[in-house]
Amino acid sequence: MNPSTVNEFVPITEINLNPQNLSPQKNLIRRFYKDLWDKQDTSLIPALIHSNFQFRGSLGPALTGHAEFAAYPSTGRWVWWDGVAIFTFEDDKINDLWVLGDVYGLMGRLKEAESEIEFAADAKLVH
């Protein structure tokens, strides 16, 4: 990674996934995120989610904006959360969802954003 771009995180807002080229399971996951999650279309739950569905993971607040988060004041900077979602399927529906997130990485980024560098000898921002 180029050190000059470390703080220039740009979130991905759209990924072109052609449903015709996806396996049935990948298409379920695409619909889960793109339609049910992003658009909050809960009418899709019976079509996508198995009646014995189980979720395992940590749910936290979704925050958009410039408010305080987890006792850290707003800095106006982007922060992100690395993680992985593991799906299992039964009867052509999502049966289990395990979500693992890097909580310590997120807290570290929030802590870094909280501390401002006030002086650098050669007037360059140093991290």
Coarse shape: elongated
CATH fold call:
Nuclear Transport Factor 2, Chain: A
Q: At the first level of CATH, what is the class?
A: Alpha Beta
Largest sheet: 3 strands, mixed
Query: How much β-strand is present in the residues?
Result: 15-25%
Structural class: alpha+beta
Adjacency order of strands in the biggest sheet = 1-3-2
Number of strands: 3
- Counted by DSSP, the helix tally is 3
Rg calc: 19 Å
Percent of residues in helical segments? 10-25%
Q: Low-confidence parts lasting 5 or more residues at pLDDT below 50?
A: 117-127
Number of domain units: 1
Mean pLDDT: 77
Distance between the termini: 14 Å
Order of helices and strands: HHEEEH
Q: Please identify, by name, the CATH architecture.
A: Roll
InterPro entries: NTF2-like_dom_sf (IPR032710)
Keywords:
three-stranded mixed β-sheet, 3 helices, alpha+beta, disordered C terminus, Nuclear Transport Factor 2, Chain: A
Describe this structure as you would to a colleague:
InterPro entries: NTF2-like_dom_sf. The radius of gyration is 19 Å and the shape is elongated. Strands 1-3-2 form a 3-stranded mixed beta sheet. Helices cover 24% and strands 20% of the residues. The chain has helices at 24-37, 45-48, 103-114, and strands at residues 49-56, 83-90, 93-101. The protein has one domain (14-114): Nuclear Transport Factor 2, Chain: A, CATH 3.10.450. By secondary structure, it is an alpha+beta fold.
Produce the secondary structure layout.
Elements: H1 24-37, H2 45-48, E1 49-56, E2 83-90, E3 93-101, H3 103-114
Parallel strand pairs: 1-3
Antiparallel strand pairs: 2-3
